[in-house]
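Help needed: design a sequence for this.
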């Protein structure tokens, strides 16, 4: 980590925005299990839920605050427990319920949101800009009277008027907000646009020097990670993310992508993180299994194929030096059981390696040649050639070793 970089706060919302994925519902025990894993992973702030949404949500947030909030397991390097956060609309009932749900956590935060785009003000909330500012200030003032750490999100910021945003944000800073989260709620922005928005807000919001700006991007155009990274480059020092990118519609920014982008380019991004990258794969599997949301095989970092090489040229390169075709070692993210995938694109070197692994390292050149030809012929007929197939080919050439 270059000495001069600033710490990037990793805010995980898998249990709140992630749980808003169609078809996902987690019970309280499953949420606790995931929350404990997030704590060990090194997440700084965990958005545990939206307490006013249902009795079940309230109880889950309360149990996470009590049972996971104080945990320090594997957090020695970070030196403090995870902050437990609850979401609230800018209305008194939400804010009071939220404060109650998180009360037992040693470190706690209320996240208050209110839409600021003219579209949302006119059609959804049916209020004007002055009323929006009044509600935002009243909500943050109430929140601050209950909990010290207040985050404010102008919902649909990605399509809001920039100068109006600066005005609202300046007012909520005066009222006590210390984190300003800038949601691209509908995944509309491009990286240049979102980066420029963060830069503008950092430069023009009254009191901006006293607060932390945060990104919150959705993946409707497949740009969530790119937008988040553009936000960091332009001054954001917190990112709101989910494991495997789960979330509303096309999902949220995937934590593993942002963390590994920073890890792979330590001299490019002006930040460092304190995530234990070796727990990324395990966490991804846990979230996928408990949420029922499959991870696509070619998903960056955590997909089943992310570290597999099938083409002969790539396999040959990797056998000679892994860096030829790998920018991240699988072990860095906790993947340990990687084997070269054998298929019709595989070459002789990869096939010879697999023969050795299967106990046939002693084949004569003619035997090896015959086995390789049989293997290639089988690949033309069978999509997934596995070890049993290879053993069957080898055993017809020479008896079991
Ligand atoms: O996408 C969004 O705007 C949100 C807010 C509640 C922060 O999830
Ligand atoms: Zn969201």
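Sure. Designed sequence:
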């Amino acid at each position: 980590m270059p000495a001069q970089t600033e710490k990037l706060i990793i805010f995980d919302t898998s249990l709140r925005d992630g749980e808003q994925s169609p078809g996902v519902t987690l019970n309280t025990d499953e949420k606790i299990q995931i929350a404990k894993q997030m704590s060990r992973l090194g997440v700084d702030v965990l958005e545990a839920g939206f307490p006013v949404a249902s009795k079940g949500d309230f109880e889950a947030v309360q149990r996470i605050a009590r049972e996971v909030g104080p945990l320090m397991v594997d957090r020695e390097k970070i030196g403090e427990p995870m902050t437990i956060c609850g979401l609230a609309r800018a209305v008194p009932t939400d804010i009071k319920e939220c404060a109650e749900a998180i009360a037992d956590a040693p470190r706690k935060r209320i996240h208050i949101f209110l839409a600021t785009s003219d579209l949302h003000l006119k059609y959804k909330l049916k209020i004007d800009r002055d009323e929006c500012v009044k509600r935002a200030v009243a909500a943050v003032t109430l929140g601050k009277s209950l909990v010290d750490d207040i985050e404010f999100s102008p919902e649909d910021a990605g399509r809001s008027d920039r100068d109006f945003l600066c005005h609202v944000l300046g007012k909520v800073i005066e009222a006590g907000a210390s984190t300003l989260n800038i949601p691209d709620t509908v995944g509309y922005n491009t990286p240049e646009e979102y980066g420029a928005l963060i830069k503008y807000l950092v430069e023009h919001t009254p009191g901006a020097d006293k607060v932390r700006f945060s990104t919150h991007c959705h993946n409707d155009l497949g740009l969530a990670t790119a937008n988040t990274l553009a936000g960091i480059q332009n001054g954001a020092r917190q990112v709101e993310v989910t494991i495997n990118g789960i979330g509303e519609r096309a999902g949220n920014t995937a934590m593993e992508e942002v963390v590994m982008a920073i890890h792979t380019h330590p001299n490019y991004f002006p930040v460092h993180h304190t995530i234990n990258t070796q727990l990324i794969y395990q966490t991804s599997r846990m979230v996928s299994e408990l949420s029922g949301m499959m991870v696509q095989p070619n998903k960056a970092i955590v997909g089943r194929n992310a570290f597999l090489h099938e083409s002969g040229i790539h396999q040959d390169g990797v056998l000679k030096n892994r860096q030829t075709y790998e920018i991240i070692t699988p072990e860095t993210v906790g993947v340990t059981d990687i084997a070269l995938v054998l298929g019709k694109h595989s070459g002789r070197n990869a096939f010879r390696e697999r023969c050795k692994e299967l106990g046939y390292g002693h084949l004569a050149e003619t035997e090896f040649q015959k086995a390789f030809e049989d293997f290639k012929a089988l690949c033309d007929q069978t999509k997934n050639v596995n070890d049993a197939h290879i053993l069957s080919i080898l055993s017809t050439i020479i008896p079991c070793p």
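The chain is about 45% helix and 10% strand.
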